[in-house]
Design goal:
The protein has about 80 residues and is an all-alpha fold. It has two helices and no strands. One of its GO terms (molecular function) is sodium ion transmembrane transporter activity.
Length: about 80
């Protein structure tokens, strides 16, 4: 009974890494399909602030970029 532990360890490593890689590929594929489905049914509409609902608009990021840049500059000053 001659067992080569190095070759068995290598085969288990390849099996484990390939199963993790396959799982990640399947997860990325399903999440991209889910994102397409959600974007198809949910529209990005502008809702007035009187309703107090969260508004998502992709084109208007100037205020967000300005706030992030001010926060970064304040953090670097400290």
């Amino acid at each position: 009974m001659n067992i080569n532990l190095v070759s068995e360890g290598f085969s288990f490593m390849v099996l484990g890494m390939s199963s993790v890689f396959l799982f990640l590929v399947i997860m990325i594929f399903t999440l991209s399909i889910q994102g397409r489905i959600i974007n198809k049914f949910i529209k990005n509409e502008i809702i007035d602030n009187d309703n107090k609902t969260i508004c998502f608009k992709k084109e208007d990021n100037n205020e967000l970029v300005a706030a992030i840049s001010v926060a970064i500059s304040n953090f670097k000053k400290r």
